């Protein structure tokens, strides 16, 4: 899949301090690049009320993505208590 990162995603990544969390997020990004359908990844849920918004679970963090065909936009990454205030 084609992967695109929004500026907010990079800013959110800078706020994450633990290397373990950053490493797991990097693994998820590589996994998304290698699959053909986003639903094939464990921990992915479609957000109700939004046609193309999904969240991917990564430990205590959630990654908010928009999917349009074969293009995935990584929009936000935040702690699980905060992600739904920020995304979508």
UniProtKB/TrEMBL annotation:
Pfam families according to UniProt: ParE_toxin
Signal peptide: none
InterPro entries listed in its UniProt record: RelE/ParE_toxin (IPR007712), RelE/ParE_toxin_dom_sf (IPR035093), TA_system_RelE_toxin (IPR052747)
Keyword Signal among record annotations: no
Entry's transmembrane regions: none
Coiled coil feature spans: none
SUPFAM superfamilies: RelE-like
Keywords: Toxin-antitoxin system
PANTHER family (alphabetical): PTHR38813, TOXIN RELE1-RELATED
Name the record gives this protein: mRNA interferase RelE/StbE
Organism from which the protein derives: Roseivirga pacifica
